[in-house]
Amino acid sequence: MTGAIVEDRVLSPKSAMTVELHQGQVLRITDLEGQQVVDMAVWNLHNLREKLSTSYSRTRYFPEPGRAFRPRMTVQQGDWVMSGLCRPLMTILTETADPIGTHGVHHRMCNAFFYAAHGAGVRDGCFEQLAAAVSPYGIPPEDIPDSFDIFQNYPYDVDAGGFLVKEPVTKPGDFIEFRAEMDLLVALSNCPDDVVAAANAFHCTSSGVQIRQDAEWVRHPVLEPREWLLEQLRLHGIDPE
Ligand SMILES: [Zn+2]
Question: Could you tell me the distance, in angstroms and rounded to a whole number, from the CA of residue 171 to the centre of ligand 1?
Answer without folding.
Answer: 19
